[in-house]
Amino acid sequence: MKVLYKIALLAGISAAFTSCFDKSRPNYQYFPNMYEPIPYETYSEVEAFPNGKEGQIPAQGSIPRGFTPYEHENSTAGYDLAKANLKSPLAADEIDMPRAEQLFTIYCAICHGDKGDGKGNLVKREKFLGVPSYKDREITEGSIFHVITYGLNSMGSHANQLNQEERWQVTHYVLKLRSEL
Amino acid sequence: MSSHYEAPIRKPLIIGDKNYHDVTVDVARPVEGRANKQWWIAFTIALAAFLWGVGCVAYTVGTGIGTWGSNKTVGWAWDITNFVWWVGIGHAGTLISAVLLLFRQKWRMAINRSAEAMTIFSVIQAAMFPVFHMGRPWLAYWVMPVPNQFGSLWVNFNSPLLWDVFAISTYLSVSLVFWWTGLLPDFAMLRDRAITPFTKRVYSILSFGWSGRAKDWQRFEEVSLVLAGLATPLVLSVHTIVSFDFATSVIPGWHTTILPPYFVAGAIFSGFAMVNTLLIIMRKVSNLENYITIQHIELMNIVIMITGSIVGTAYITELFVAWYSGVEYEQYAFLNRATGPYWWSYWLMMTCNVISPQVMWFKKIRTSIMASFIISIVVNIGMWFERFVIIVTSLHRDYLPSSWTMFQPTFVDAGFYIGTIGFFFVLFLLYSRSFPVIAQAEVKSIMKTSSEKYKKLHAAHDNHSHSEHNH
Fold first, then answer.
1. Chain A window 10-69: which residues touch B at a Cβ cutoff of 8 Å?
2. Which residues, numbered 61 to 120 in chain A, qualify as contacts with chain B under a Cβ-Cβ cut-off of 8 Å?
3. Which long-range contacts link B149-158 to residues 24+ away (Cβ below 8 Å)?
4. How much is the ipTM here?
């Protein structure tokens, strides 16, 4: 009986201690000395900036090291110019097909389909329609790059997800898929 | 009685016409009586100093270690000085109760209780410094090797600071057990004499139901002997480990193999001085002059003289080795001690620690209570400066002249130290009014061999039998 009482007491104490933890809220902390950052963390809210965001837009016209601005503008004229004149800067040995395939599978295949036939998962499940097959369109490496950079019609810009080099890799992979269709 | 042989050269350890009951009454009197005005004044002063220290510690913990005078070069100063000083003081208690027990020194019996109390109270003071000199004392539990959620992150067992944790905590707990075991028969005595139900209840709890049967006594003696045997290597190792904080470093002036025995000798030296200071007052205030006799004081003075000479030898050895080493850093460290900006602390230490114990060679001085009292205080000042000199003068000027600096304590440094002195006396004053300050059970065991009354009886008996024989 006495042992039972002790066990009950122990269980009660541990229940009392653990019951204070609320799963919908961050747990209690013991002396959080260096838990909260003193410098601005990426994506954090910062009161010092007018829009309250840590990520501020760089000054217009500034060019970071290792970056070349894309000279064609986002318009039909720009598209036509890119289609006609823009050539891939990648040499033959710089084209990395396995990586390009991975990038395509991640960012493109959900709509365009693994084969580029316009039969991606979203299309098959009829979330939306109207994704054409690469075979049906007259596209060049310049136009593909231009469209990935700016988007076209329903497609949005992918310049945020893929950098210039990656976009060229994907361009080469798209051309390869098109040749196989 | 005629079978008993004790050399007539031995002086009595219990003076006056005392019987067993007188011992009981004399020991119980301070506990059973009421505190007088002087006690309350002393207690108030000690309590005020303690509370002031609490304030300074709270300020340090709340604001930061920067409130102290330590700086980037002299990271250890008063904190560790006071820590080593208090640990050193604590050592005499164990020396008296353990080492003197192993050597069968009967004179220890009147002083061991208070000496052990002094050990425990001063180790408590010492233990506060390692915690509160931390930048983040609330994480002090990390020094314990406890399984945890950091992938079971453990402590590194290579640091003498970690050994300090084990040494001090073991020392405190063993001392406490040793002390309390010895207190059981005395608490039982107070329990049996208690008049009010409250004191009866208190001393019943404290005495653990001691009934003083033969088997109890036999085991009591065995436990005391075993604990004394354990406490002796412990007391030597504790201060050795404390000395490792310095000896294992690479700082010129610290990196010395002599430090362990030299620190232990210094600890006994300062500890006995503190016992002397306290007991000279206590024998007067608590009317225990018949038990803590001038012979006790003289014997403690002799221990102070011997250990003071060992410390003096160590000083000379260090100086010799510094010269002999040919290491210019080591040589400069000692030159700096003697002639640098802290020359006054070095020479104060040398004067207090080397000269003052040597006057004990004169019987007139070592049997003078006033002289013993003054010297015992001088020794503790000197031993404080020994630790200060070792720590600060070695740190403030070492390898790189560009990092040479000075150390200036702040009022917070001083306040913490004053606070520990206050806390020590708060504990000791409370102890002296609630604990049997003399191990009456042990003193009674030497009554028939070493008290003045029985020595006279023996002498008379011997003379009588001699004259009979001559017939």
1. 31, 33
2. none
3. none
4. 0.73
